[in-house]
Amino acid sequence: GGLLDIQTTFKRQFIFALDQARLTGILLGYFLAKSTFCDDRAITLVGYSLGGVVSSYCMRTLKILSESSPS
pLDDT by residue (tens digit) across 29-65? Predict the structure, then answer.
């Protein structure tokens, strides 16, 4: 009963948090690509745990956008 419910709740919450981290990374990638925020300067992405997921999806999004934009 109780332990299984706690594990199920934890798993659901973690999956939700992981989905939110992915979405945040994608949105951050779009923001960085489309805004003037980082014009003429380098940025550093640092993340631990779910922050690493954000950084990873941000870099993936930036790569996809750079490959699809006309040179």
Answer: 999 999 998 888 899 999 999 999 999 999 999 999 9
Query: Tokens in use for 44?
Result: 């550093």
pTM of the model: 0.85
CA-nearest of 10, 21, 70 to 47 is: 21
- Token pair 């659901």 is found at 12
Hey, what amino acid is at 11? K
Whether 68 contacts 39, CB under 8 Å: no
How far is Cα 49 from Cα 62, in angstroms, rounded to an integer?
20
Give the model confidence (pLDDT) of 7-34 as tens digits. Answer: 899 999 999 999 999 999 999 999 999 9
Report yes or no: 25 and 58 within 8 Å, Cβ to Cβ.
yes
HSE-up (13 A, CA, CB side) for residue 42:
2
